[in-house]
């Protein structure tokens, strides 16, 4: 019998930004589905009307798009499906797998006060139908009271829940609105979801939701509850640990490819492989590679992964990343002249930069215009002796072939003629070309700037 195609989903609540943990959950679902030729769906769980906002929904969509995760079809609104949720609850009541409950909130509160830590058992569960009043009522699941509910979890293993410790959860409130727990099951069934990959804070929910599946005679999906992400101190991730919103990482200048690599490795492993591309992640990712222990966010490791991807990126792709970063952080776009100077230097610059801001900082020499404004250290390097040496170098460069070997040879000859090492020339040359004393190689800068701009900057510095 042929296997059903894999269908996964990501179902965020639009009550704020896309959390880094949610981004990882989305990535795991995307990798699992895409790696098997399956479908990855997006559902916006917007039933909390007081807290759900269109702005938050848009932020989630933009975050997923930035991360490079595409989804199939249009995003589904859970709120828009409220009537379908109510229909299923009424069908369950007609079938006897659910029942009307007329207990008021005050009565439930009083019962709980007398029976602390006990699951609520409604007095209407087994009441004679003829005693039911014509009054507003909730609809509750008629859950099994004996035995156990076992979740065969692909990450956590078999997890057992005693049925006498689970109450008959409300499916439909007395005002006719569905509960989240019920809506999730109906949506996942109707969307054909085969694998539910989500945080392990939903593990207890799985027991209740499995009972709703069983009550409707629906096939149970594969559950995979992944450990949450903790900070370096082992505590639940929060603002005190640094950036927790995906948008913050984009603003810090980590390329999307690096974030995909890092997040995939955060709680999942394929042997000792730390650095990999999308093709490898799609081929390797499986549920049995997910660990049971919480993953720890490590900014040093993220920087290392980011540096690898910056260095490995094709120049065209890197320029696109830079353009998107500048736009996202409301910085001016690069001009054609800046791009003309920057592009030849990318091969060298990207080997040392770990983030896009670091790359832009190293590329500053190519992005500034004349006259170059020197900082204090650079001005100190332009002492009278050094300026004299630069004058001789400028003359030697007038007719030099503009190739690295020729530029180095010319500089070496000038240094020897003045009885100094090449370093004595490098410091004032950096100051003249970049206005800084810490820069990429002076010869890489000269090649990127070209003959005319290099000589013009040297003339400015020695004037």
TrEMBL record:
Annotated motif 'HIGH' region, positions: 12-22
Keyword Nucleotide-binding tagged: yes
Subcellular location: Cytoplasm
Species, as recorded: Paracoccus chinensis
Reactions performed catalytically: tRNA(Glu) + L-glutamate + ATP = L-glutamyl-tRNA(Glu) + AMP + diphosphate
One MF term in the entry's GO annotations: zinc ion binding
SUPFAM superfamilies: An anticodon-binding domain of class I aminoacyl-tRNA synthetases, Nucleotidylyl transferase
Name used for this protein in its record: Glutamate--tRNA ligase
Major localization class: cytoplasm
Gene that encodes the chain: gltX
Similarity field: Belongs to the class-I aminoacyl-tRNA synthetase family. Glutamate--tRNA ligase type 1 subfamily.
Motif ('KMSKS' region): 236-240
